[in-house]
Amino acid sequence: MKFFIDTADLKQIKEANDLGILDGVTTNPSLMAKVGISGEEAVMQHYKTICDIVDGDISAEVVSTDFEGIIAEGKKLASIHPNIVVKVPMIQEGIKAIKWFTDNGIRTNCTLIFSAGQAILAAKAGATYVSPFIGRIDDSSWDGMELIAQISHIYQVQGFKTEILAASIRNALHIVKAAEAGADVCTCPLSSILGLLKHPLTDIGLAQFLEDAKKFA
Ligand code: G3P
User: Fold this and answer.
1) CA proximity to 94, closest of 50, 115, 124, 53
2) What is the spatial distance between Cα 42 and Cα 23, in angstroms, rounded to a whole number?
3) 2 is annotated as an active-site residue
4) What is the pLDDT of residue 216?
5) Distance between CA atoms of 164 and 162, rounded to whole angstroms?
6) Which of 67, 157, 184, 193 would bridge with 163, disulfide CB 3.0–4.6 Å?
7) Is the CB of residue 7 below 6 angstroms from any atom belonging to ligand 1?
8) Angle, CA 144 vertex, CA 139 and CA 146 arms, to 5°
9) Residue 141 Rama label (left phi>0; alpha psi -120 to 50; beta)
10) What is the pTM of this model?
11) Is 138 in the pocket of ligand 1 (CB under 6 A)?
């Protein structure tokens, strides 16, 4: 399973990249706003900086909702760097645009996926990635992991090549469960990635080893 970090925060991107296990980055307009990036020029420059830090797929989201607008924006974003993946919302014009991008060699991430039907449509249009929002599904009292497992099953049965990118991850357990359910990628906040490291018995065991090591120093 690939690990992406879900943030526009350069410090966190660098910290995750330094672990040596990072395969890419996803962002969205809310994450950009959170770090104070706004305006076309600043957004483009920020994506460029992220591409310089991480050698992997970088999802850059369009904010247009009409076909022509999505295509124009997507072409601009894709021109920043070959690793850019154009993130397109799951709407009617978005599906048309994903098909156009597919036919024109531009990779896409279909975002805001909340049902298997949406995932089928995105795969049919040739999306490189499909992003089911696990945490938000859980928040609405449904089971986000069930959706990952269902999409994984459908894609296997049908032979779709689209990769399942588990998004809206809130904790380390989400990552483990998404891996189990068949996600190809998990995009996570840094805290969830670091959460995978933690176990109290590891801390207790290490403290004991270091204490015992002193006896032979
Ligand atoms: O990748 C999508 C993600 O950023 C949404 O996460 O926590 O806002 O539901 P969240």
Assistant:
1) 124
2) 24
3) no
4) 80
5) 7
6) 184
7) no
8) 145
9) left
10) 0.96
11) no
